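Page 47, continued from p. 46.
Same chain as before, 215 aa.
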Amino acid sequence: MALLARVFLALALVAASPHAVFTARVVKITDGDTISVQVEGKRSQKVRLVDIDTPEKDQPYGREARQALAALVANREVRIESRGADDYGRLLARVFVDELDVNAELVRRGAAWVFRKYSDDAKLLELEREARAEQRGLWALPASERIPPWHWRHRDAPAEPAAPPAKSAPFHCGTKTFCREMTSCAEARFYLSKCGLTRLDGDGDGVPCSALCKR
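Result:
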């Protein structure tokens, strides 16, 4: 019982520390950027690989991204360099197998994007450029299928309502000249004030087409 309590305490301290480093065994591959690990074989902990984002399970290259991660870490002892936890209780971390940076390797293989919202790591960005130039992994897909996961996840979100079309002016200068052509006082006022058609205000009182506007 005391041992189990120490394990739980150790895991709590790991989650609380923004820069904890520890070793664990990978026991599950959830998707291309999420694994579960065990510390001392007592409890599993989800780990989200930081700085990268891989295709979702239901989007093109999602299955391949998961396989790429599994090939690197499944059932392996890994070093976790934690950066704290996210809102889902997952540790955010860089993951290493011996000296191999798994996060970077996924980008190099074309199995992951650099997660632009959270990372501007120059090394990762260069690896992504190289993978794209050499059409590795997901970069070999047609452009229409290379959708960043952060866009894919929101593809079914309700679109913002479109702005109503601008109403065109009901009247247009140059199409009418005389009061007898006006169909309303509003039209007559438009031609006087907007088009400068002063002939409509014959008596200079500011009211165009008196017979129409003084009814």
